[in-house]
Amino acid sequence: MKILLHRIARGISGLIFVIGLLWGCARPHSDQLQRSSQTKVLMGTYVTVDVCYSREDARVLLDAYNEVWARVQELQEIMSLYEPRSEISRINGSYPDAVPVGHELYQVLDSSIRISELTRGAFDITVFPLVHLWRESGRAKRLPSKMEISQAQDRTGMRFIELLEDQRVRLLKPGMSLDLGGIAKGYAVDEAARVLRSRGFKDFFIDAGGDLYLGGQSCQGTPWRIGIRNPARKDQIIDIVEVRNQAVTTSGSYEQYVEIGGRNYSHIIDPRTGFPQEGVVSATVIAPITYEADALATALCVLSQQEGIELIESMGESYGALLIVSDSRVDHLKLVPSLKYQEHRLPKF
Ligand code: ADP
Ligand code: MG
Q: How is the chain split into domains, by residue range?
């Protein structure tokens, strides 16, 4: 619980947010839909679900909300490292046996392997031994030794996850631990969107601690508009994107990090070096599916700026990214809408 609250406390001042909600709910025109909003603490963060509905759908809406929350809770129970009885925890203690898992976890593992290949190893759900080492080092306020890093690295590697027939999973090295922190929230958002659509709602947004999915359009019939804040000055909006049936997610070192010797170390690990990623302060990704956007945003923090831009450009029209890059301070950002990117200079701050 302590870990949970700690993470939530850090995760609330979101870098991306839906613009125009306040005036939107003031007084809808007669042909406009009403907006309903519910928030719950799930998956280690605040999950908000806003739905546009008409009066006659009010009852169905309540059922839809109940089903959404039950589904997200169920996914948390499957994918959380902090629940000892979760499916992921069962895999983590299972070496050398094969473990049968449900279709959700099997699909997330399969997708994680695909995204790892796509990002040349930058996205890596086996990094937990390193995540744990750096987190503990942060608590003890000392850098881990080379030896500790290489011992933790020895317990990582995507090629040591084996997906077998009949939805079974086997880890091929002792001491391995899988960590779905970079993809599970996105998957839960996709599932919430699927539930809402199955109940007939098409205009909605879901925000799970910075992993957003925007279904259809806003309750005023305009595109959803997402503001992206400057991580160094939260009152400054550096860009606005308009989206429809797309996910927008952000990852970065601006909120979650450990401090050792006056330096901040990101919670995202570069699996190639065993060190926390640096360079990219935040990566915002637009994609058609939230779990992809979630995982890609994590990967773009690890990849070099050039590699990240090339990756997103190779992925087709419905993918975009915005990187805030720094050596020691936020410097500039790149926006990649539909295969072409422009470079913006940020105002000095
Ligand atoms: P947030 O949890 O803030 O939304 P991310 O989606 O970027 O951020 O996920 C970061 C989490 O993913 C870390 O806390 C850790 O659990 C895990 N992680 C760290 N490094 C990697 C990596 N290289 N690939 C995949 N997951 C990672
Ligand atoms: Mg992520």
A: 3-55+208-345
* pLDDT tens digits, one per residue of 24-42: 444 555 567 999 999 999 9
Contact 270, 276 (CB under 8 A): yes
For residue 26, the CA-to-ligand 2 centroid distance in Å is 33
**pLDDT tens-place string over residues 305-321:** 889 988 988 888 788 88
Indicate if ligand 1 lies below 6 Å from the C-beta of 43: no
Give the rounded percent of residues in the chain with a pLDDT score beyond 90. Answer: 69
Report d(CA 203, CA 220) in Å as an integer: 10
**Of the ligands numbered here, which is closest to the C-alpha atom of 258?**
1
Ligand 1 midpoint to CA 45 (Å) = 14
How many whole angstroms separate alpha carbon 237 and alpha carbon 337?
18
- Spell out a b/e string for 160-174, using b for 16 or more CB atoms within 10 Å of the CB, else e: ebeeeeeeebbbeee
Quick one: which of 201, 195, 220, 268 has its CA closest to 57?
201
Q: What atom of ligand 1 comes closest to residue 295's alpha carbon?
A: 6
Would the CB of 216 count as within 6 Å of ligand 1?
no
Q: What is the pLDDT of residues 193-249, one digit of tens each?
A: 999 999 999 999 999 999 999 999 999 999 999 988 888 777 888 778 888 999 999
pLDDT exceeds 50 at position 334: no
Question: Domain 3-55+208-345 maps to which CATH number in 3.30.230.40, 3.40.50.1820, 3.10.520.10, 3.30.1330.30?
Answer: 3.10.520.10
pTM for the full predicted model: 0.91
User: Helix, strand, or coil here: 160?
Assistant: helix
Is the shortest distance between the CB of 256 and ligand 1 below 6 Å? Answer: yes
Which protein residue has the closest C-alpha to ligand 1 atom 3? 251
CA of 290 to the centre of ligand 2 (A): 9
The answer to whether 349 and 233 have CB atoms below 8 angstroms apart is yes
Q: How far is the CA of 268 from the centre of ligand 1 (A)?
A: 5
Judge if the upstream peptide bond of residue 96 is cis by omega within 30 degrees of 0. Answer: yes
Longest dimension (CA), the chain: 67
